[in-house]
Amino acid sequence: MRRRRRALSIATALAALAAGVGAAVPAGAAPPSPQYVLMGDSYSAGNGAGTYDERTCWRSPDTYGAKVAAQDGAELTNVACSGGVVADITQPRALGAPFVRTATYEVNGTAALQQRKWLERAQADALCGTPAQPDWHYEQTITSSTPAGRSLTATVNCQLTAAAQVDAVTPRTDAVFLTIGGNDIGFSSIIDGVPVKIQDIAQINLGKELRSGAGTLNGQETVIGTTMMLVGENSRTVAKAVDSKLETIKTSLPEGVILEAVYDRTSLVDKTIDTVQKNLVEGALLVIVVLFVLLGNVRAALITAAVIPLAMLATISSMVKTDVSANLMSLGALDFGLIVDGAVIIVENCIRRLSESQKQNGATLPLKERLNVVYEATNEVIRPSLFGVLIITIVYIPLFTLTGVEGKMFHPMAATVIMALLAAMVFCFTVVPAAIAIFMRGKISEKESPIIKGAKAVYRPVLTGALRFRWLVVVAASALVVGSLWMGSKLGSEFIPQLNEGDILVQAIRIPGTGVEQAVEMQKTLEAKLMQYEQVQTVFGRTGTGEVATDPMPPNITDTFVILKPREQWPDPSMTKAELVETFEEDLFTLPGNNYEFTQPIQMRFNELISGVRADLGIKLFGDDLDTLFASASDILSVISTIEGADDARLEQVEGIPIFTVTPKPDQLARFGLDIADLQLWLNAATGGETAGMIFEGDRRFEIVVRYADDIRNELTQLESVPIVTPSGEHVPISELATLAFKEVPSQISRENGKRSIVVTANVRDRDIGTFVEEAQARINDEVDLPAGYWLDYGGTFEQLESASQRLTIVVPVTLFVILTMLVIAFGSIRDALIIFTGIPLALTGGVMSLWLRDMPLSISASVGFIALSGIAVLNGLVMLSFIKQRLLETGELVNSIVEGALIRLRPVLMTALVASLGFVPMALNTGIGAEVQRPLATVVIGGIISSTLLTLVVLPVLYRLVHSKGI
């Protein structure tokens, strides 16, 4: 009661004092601003006064008096003190415990004199420091002094004291605001016992994590998930298992949630397999028809054709055992004509020998005699057949030397072909002879088909003339070979033909710094425009980086997948996919803020895996200075954009992106007892939030995140006012501890092998990548002056083409030497081996010319065709020259042996050539999905077999006569 009376009396006195003060205002002068004083004890400091600090007084700017002063335009003197009591209004208050200061002074007199000088007020003030507030001051008391030689060390206690609050009231004071309570009546203990709920100091709501990516479908935002396949698994099997699992998941989804697959590689795999199956079936039918027509015997044709299913069964079994899947690449080079080549040679010779034996005996042959005849007939051709099949097998071995991506692609192809050829060879030398001896009963007549008769009628005079003008034939053949070499040098080059996946990928590239929300809105507009096309079935996009960052991208880039309807549902089915892409380009470039790259889903990923760029060609510029890199890369882009065939040429985005920067003020941090780590901690909490706990809903867990509201986090001025609590409990705004600003910095800085780089990318259309890069290299060398220490590297599919080509240029010659060695072993003669070996360049002539006629570049697929072609050419030469040599040994007449031997071997040579070439005809003419990869291979083989057959029938006999004109 006494304290209350005292407080009331003080308040009354102060009110009276305030009423009586106030200076007179001279007439005509502008009235001065009102002068208000706010004083009181602990709770008079107002809301938000802060944590009590023994050495200071917290004073809130939000008290009632402060708001009134602001409304009246008055100057407010706030001397209220948190933690104070009523007595502090009229009496000075010691703020916390004294702190100690020491100093050493030179002694110029007696110690007592120095001690008195030490206690002078000016020295004490300088030692204790300047008060932080005008109503605070220091009181100093000396506690000890120690003389040492000619110096004196003194210790002073500095007591920070707040003046009596009533001293702030002056004659100019117009109003005084006074509140008391709190510590005097124990109100703080009451407040401490009141629970404070989170909702009293913060907004609580269900939110979402700060996302770095988004998914859209047909112009609407959605959630997109991606199934990741394990390394070594079969994509078709995995996709089917996922589809089955999705059907199960759909049954448990809540109402309104729709789950559907928007992109499935199974459809593409199935389409390519359908193309391969169609090619194989049509090729097998053509081979069987040729066998029926040229052999002139149904049973013989059936026995020969039986090798196809038997060899395929063995091949498929081997593929299963060796984990080689059936796909476009593994079955892409499989030709049933090659498989039955050995059987054709054996069956043709057996039929001829059985027919001759029946004529000699004048009756049909019993089984025992048929077995003997077949055995002898098989022995006649087993050596050339065996060596021929082995050579065809050997020529595929160089494909196993390919590494990297090209190795992954072509190893299965080589393995499948070798397994098929070896299986066919086994059946040719076991099943086929036995089947002929068993099933070729009754009268056997060697009927020549009209085609063979006509061919022999034409071939005899041609061969006779060639033997007469043999040097002219040699010169003409040499000219053809030289001409084909020149023609081959003019062909373009590419890694592999571009597979038509049936879908389109549009990569939308926006200004660096574009946020996720803005990118999503722009993507919705893009997808809505694409959905207007009748050819489009579905459009979905992946913007930025997903929750699981398997494919990290900035938020300004979106991969837009355009799934097309089947071609028969298009308004104009004759419209090509390239024409549709051109239409997309013209339409989409009307949308502001977007740039585009047009490619295909798998092609984009394939290019990215090869060299880190998603385009067909990536020109990487390496150097030190980023500005110099950007300037030189811009010059390169200008050159590339003008080259014929360049499309979607662009420079890697390195231009400035606005970012929020914080520059610490070390002196201020040290003053408040903070370091940079403390600043970073508070900034992270302010902008990104801090996890305060977890909420569990069944087996699901959700983080409880505490962070500032969006209007604070997204505004620079708001962030600057965010307070940081110092170790002493003081609240200091971030702006006093650091400088906050927006600044433009490079959007990305790429490095490769520790060196800075920038990439210029381009897609190549209607032109091969090889000649495009050659022209680009020449023009860049001429038109772009790179500074010293800067260099270029060309990546993309061109990089794989160079890698594969360099490896093949080493391995193929070695393989050819092995083939030559086998020919020498087979014939026991280097001269005969070289004669047969000439069939290889003669065959390559037709392959090159066929590529040139069909305007196809040289690719790895075409190179596989040349590899297969060289084996077929050697097989034909073996069949012909082995028989010519046998006839020459029997008769000793060179010219007659050459003519008769060539005529007798005409049918097997034509048959092997026809079945091998016709087996590839469906591949060469098919337009289905995946046919692009097989087409160059088939084109080379067909053209090469035609030239090889014609030249083998003419040039090889001529060379044999020239080499053996002086005898064997």
From TrEMBL:
<dbReference type="InterPro" id="IPR001036">
    <property type="entry name" value="Acrflvin-R"/>
</dbReference>
<dbReference type="InterPro" id="IPR027463">
    <property type="entry name" value="AcrB_DN_DC_subdom"/>
</dbReference>
<keyword id="KW-1003">Cell membrane</keyword>
<dbReference type="GO" id="GO:0005886">
    <property type="term" value="C:plasma membrane"/>
</dbReference>
<feature type="transmembrane region" description="Helical">
    <location>
        <begin position="469"/>
        <end position="488"/>
    </location>
</feature>
<keyword id="KW-0472">Membrane</keyword>
<dbReference type="InterPro" id="IPR006311">
    <property type="entry name" value="TAT_signal"/>
</dbReference>
<keyword id="KW-0813">Transport</keyword>
<feature type="transmembrane region" description="Helical">
    <location>
        <begin position="937"/>
        <end position="960"/>
    </location>
</feature>
<dbReference type="GO" id="GO:0008324">
    <property type="term" value="F:monoatomic cation transmembrane transporter activity"/>
</dbReference>
<feature type="transmembrane region" description="Helical">
    <location>
        <begin position="283"/>
        <end position="316"/>
    </location>
</feature>
<feature type="transmembrane region" description="Helical">
    <location>
        <begin position="860"/>
        <end position="884"/>
    </location>
</feature>
<feature type="transmembrane region" description="Helical">
    <location>
        <begin position="808"/>
        <end position="827"/>
    </location>
</feature>
<keyword id="KW-0732">Signal</keyword>
<feature type="transmembrane region" description="Helical">
    <location>
        <begin position="417"/>
        <end position="440"/>
    </location>
</feature>
<feature type="transmembrane region" description="Helical">
    <location>
        <begin position="833"/>
        <end position="853"/>
    </location>
</feature>
<dbReference type="Pfam" id="PF00873">
    <property type="entry name" value="ACR_tran"/>
</dbReference>
<dbReference type="InterPro" id="IPR004763">
    <property type="entry name" value="CusA-like"/>
</dbReference>
<keyword id="KW-1133">Transmembrane helix</keyword>
<feature type="transmembrane region" description="Helical">
    <location>
        <begin position="904"/>
        <end position="925"/>
    </location>
</feature>
<feature type="signal peptide">
    <location>
        <begin position="1"/>
        <end position="29"/>
    </location>
</feature>
<keyword id="KW-0812">Transmembrane</keyword>
<feature type="transmembrane region" description="Helical">
    <location>
        <begin position="385"/>
        <end position="405"/>
    </location>
</feature>
<comment type="similarity">
    <text>Belongs to the resistance-nodulation-cell division (RND) (TC 2.A.6) family.</text>
</comment>
<protein>
    <submittedName>
        <fullName>RND-type efflux transporter protein</fullName>
    </submittedName>
</protein>
<dbReference type="GO" id="GO:0042910">
    <property type="term" value="F:xenobiotic transmembrane transporter activity"/>
</dbReference>
